Amino acid sequence: MLVRIFEYATQIALDQGEIIENTLKVEIPRSAILFLRSTGSTPDKMRIEITTPGGAVSFDIPVMKAQRYGIEEIFEKNLLFLIPFYIFSHESRFEEYNSDKDKLEILKAEYADIMARLDQLLGNGSISAYTRKIIMEMSDKVLESIARKFEHVREGVKSVMGGKVLEHEAKTILREGWKQGREEGRREGEGYGRMEQAKETAFNLRTIGLEEETIAKMVNVPISAVREWFAEVVL
Hints:
This protein is mainly alpha-helical. The protein has helices at 2-16, 71-76, 94-99, 101-123, 129-146, 151-161, 167-180, 182-188, 190-206, 212-219, 223-234; strands at residues 18-20, 23-25, 33-35, 45-52, 55-65. The strands form two sheets. A three-stranded mixed beta sheet has the order 3-5-4, covered by helices on one side.
């Protein structure tokens, strides 16, 4: 994982670097690693050390542990990208939720709270309808994968997170999807705009250290497409 983070960071540094006279100046961007599952032995940070002809340099990579973030902290710190992974904090109790309706209702209430907060952010203009929809879709994909053996958990959470999209909201989402890829999207239509947004989301997920297979599931494209996107940048 550290190797991938180093590769991504140095590629970004090269892309944004500049040559001034006879000197190439690059800046390594701040990075973080997201662990969807963690234990007591999972470190709070990792380190990269580089030995160069001019001396040694090192920097820390903070570790984010998805299971430790509660709803309040996610919204207070504006870590909305963690919402799809919030279900991991409940993974150890899936069997209980699946067999106990009362406990399942408690889980559903938490997701109802998440939806209410997203709706509030949408209402005050902090997020767009498109962003809200992406969060919901990504949450659904993670849920389908992690809770595939627990039907009641899947259907219970989906009944809350899979809210209906109103007609005016759908139009807003479509407009924003077009805007994401407007230059080519205007010529090739909605399909291109959706693919461009999937590509942008894939690169964002890669920066937090997610596996290519996980990213492919999250953005709903073949893993071969994800690898092709990433290869384009490396080349």
